[in-house]
Structure formats: structure tokens, C-alpha cells
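Lab channel / #folding
Pinned by the channel admin:
"Please post every new chain as: sequence first, then the C-alpha cells as a reply. Keep commentary short and put observations after the output so the thread stays searchable."

First post following the new format, from NK:
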Amino acid sequence: MHVASGFIVFGTMIVAWLSLVPPVGAVIESESGAEWVASVDEPGPNVPPVGRSLFDYLFTERIDGIPQYRVPFPFEALTGEIEVYLRATTTRSLQKVLIPLGRSLHRNAASPHFFKSPRAVVAAEADPLSVPGKPLVVLKDRLYLGYQPSVAAIEVISYNESAGRFEFQVVEDYRPGGTPRVYYAERAICLGCHQNHAPIFAIQPWDESNSNPSVSTLLMREQPNFYGIPSFTGIDIPGLIGLSTDRANLFSTYQLIWREGCSATDKTESIKCRANALFAALRYRLAADTHPGTRQDDARFILATRFRETWREKWPTGIAIPSRELPDLDPFGGAKTYLGVGAIRNLELLETRVPVDVISIDDEFEPL
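Reply from TO:
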């Protein structure tokens, strides 16, 4: 895959301007020699070095000058407060699926009653909606929840705009009468599966989810919905979650290119390069994603020249991007029958199963 096919993503990189975290040392992908954009060998600190997660922004309030978590219960109330910040699409503002037989750390928590307590997976993939009296909050592709009531816990992945990274958090004691406790998880453990430092999701046809008729039938035998999520959903919903995680997976690439792709000895040249990148992205969107300007355009020429030189200097063998994609898994192993009482599902961590994209540059490179 060449950068030229999808390089006009600088519009999403505006958040990177606020990134205060210094780059870590390069980690090289063994087969291609390309530099990893994100690596399990560089998990970073568990607690944000700067800023806070979007989840913290939404669900903390100051009491006597001290920030404290306020996490609504039940889960429908929590998602309802999130939906206020999202513009409803043709489907819904939050995409939600049920996965009774999945691959998360809580995969065996509901055993043997998997279909009485399915795990809920929620993704914010809608555009922001202005809330009177509050700043505009962009949650699209930046907030993901995994709720398992059997362990009274929510796993949270949400973006930290200041640090330019996703944060991994856990909400515990999330139950009737409980007092929810929120903490930042150990990133090294999270990266055992989340090798991209971001959300992951299976590829189609998403057999683990309630878009699979075999799964939804068993869920509907228990009840018509769980936590405000219908027992059956169309295949478009997990598809939208997959597209959202695709976009989120590239944030770290945008960060790297924004930080180093326009770097130059002359600081003025670096600033000019980034300004031209934003200008090109704006024109690209205004032109209905067709072009960022003519080839004779000075701003385009300056950006292309600077980026071409920097790329050859910094990434001569390309950039390796961990994928968010997990292989699809039929929870019934093709048998289409319930696993039965006492069934425990043991799955290895996906340490070697996440495929890799390598982007490189050739002599005819034309980024815009």
C-alpha cells in the first residue's frame, strides 16, 4: 500500500498539534525493515503523562475543588449521557453490539450462562453535536466501551487529545448499589492484544456478534434486549464499528507523520509545511474529497517537496502499521449449537495474529 492512496488525512491530524509527548525510539519490523508506528515494546506510562482521557472529561466533576468520578448506572444511563454529544446518523449516534462468546479478558466471566450476560461493545462513530453551555466535544472514533455485568466492569478505550494517544481504563464495581471505581489499566497487558495502541475489532462477517442469527436467536430466548441493546442487530452495525476502529487505528500514523514528516532544520520551513498540509486537507474536503488543488499550486508543490525529502531521510524502508483487524471467529466452531453448561473458552492472546500494513514511497511518489 502506497501513501499516495490515502495520504489526505491531515484534517484529522489537527489534534496532533497539541501533542506534548516526545517520540519514543524507533522499533523496526523484522521482515520489511520498516519502522513500527506503534509497538508493544513501547507501551508508555499507564497514567497519562499529560492531559486526560475523553472518558475522564465526560464523567468527572469537581467536588470541593477535587475531581471525582461520576459514572451513571445502569449502562443505558451511561450511554445516554454520551449520546447527547453525538449527532444521530441514519442508524444511531452510538453503535452497539452484543458479544456473548468473545475474546476479551472477560470472555469466560459469564460461564456457563453466556447468553444471559453477553458483553456489550459500544463505539462512538457519529459526528459531534453542540450541547448548549458546553464546549464542542469530538467523540467520533475516540470512545469505545466493553461492558460485562457478570464482573460488574467496563473496559474503556478513549482518546487523550493532549497526549495524542488512546488511554486504557477500567470501571469496577459497576453494579446496583455499587460505587464505581475508575483506574488506568496496565498498558503492557492491554497491548498483548491491542498491538496498535488503539481499539481492535474482528473482520466481517462478525460471527461473534448478535448480527449472527445463531447468536441472536439464543439471546432472544433469554430476553429481547440487554442494557438497551436489541438482541438482534443488522450486520451494518458491527460494520460501522469496524470502520470506526479502522480510522482510529491510523491516529498514531497521523501523529508520526505530522510530528516528523514536516520536520526540517529550519523551524520556519516545518511550520510552513504543516500549514500547507492543513490547507491541502481543507481544500480536499471542500472539493468533496476529489483533489487538494492543482499540480501547479505552490502550496501543494512545497508540501510535496518537503514531505518527499523527509520521507526518504526518515523512513527509507517504509512505515509498519499494526492492524486493528482480528480474524473472524465462529463461536460455535461451525456446529451452530450452544456450548453447554460448564463450557469454558480458552483462547490465546493475539500476540502474533494481528496483520501488518507497510506503507512505503517510490520514485514516482506524488502525495497529493
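NK: Confidence is low (pLDDT under 50) at residues 1-24, 335-355, 361-368.
TO: also worth noting, The radius of gyration is 22 Å.
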